[in-house]
Amino acid sequence: MATRTDEQIQKDVLAELKWDARVRPNEVGVAVKDGVVTLTGWVDSYTKRWAAEEAAHRVRGVKAVANDIEVRLPISAERTDADIAAAAVRALEWDAFVPVDKLDVTVSKGWVTLKGEVEWQYQRQDAERVVRRLSGVKGVSNLITVRPRLTPSELKGKIEKALVRSAELDAERITVEVQGSKVILKGTVRAWAEKEEAERVAWSAPGITSVENRITIMP
After folding, report:
1. CA Rg, the chain, in Å?
2. What phi-psi label fits residue 28: left (phi over 0), alpha (psi between -120 and 50 degrees) or beta?
3. Other CB atoms closer than 10 Å to residue 64's CB: what's the count?
4. Could you read off the pLDDT of 86-118 as tens digits, one per residue?
């Protein structure tokens, strides 16, 4: 695949920002050097800052994103730390996927810090997703850890069985290695979609904190 120039990447990131209804493209500046995108400017909510970062990551050729966008809340959106903390706990209690009793929420000058332990990666991600949408939030630090209850060999077996169950994959061409809570996928698949599906399956195992996808594509 031909390497994309920084100019092409910048053009596509700007187009993606314009396409994303959550972001106003004139609020965000985009610079690209060696495939690394730097976002600058200011927005009026943390959700917009996050949306801009997500949009940049979606563009082909982007190696990394440095998000220097500043959040400047309008007076109407300012909340006390106590209000934000109470709203965060309420929102987490209402989310069926998050074990709120296992989490600690701290708020300082609008910045929310989440701590605690969960069993699944999606619970860690969901907790952050819930909190970053709240009015008055200027940033989120997700320090929640994922702790597996299963041994590496049990995790390996669960992932292998899940790969076999997936209609989109030829599981015989994929090997699974588990090191603690990290999964390493190897082997070959026919298309990018298959590679992504294998990674999704690996992430769905309890206690997994990272997936290294070394699968190669051989049509």
Report:
1. 20
2. beta
3. 11
4. 999 999 999 988 889 999 999 999 999 999 999
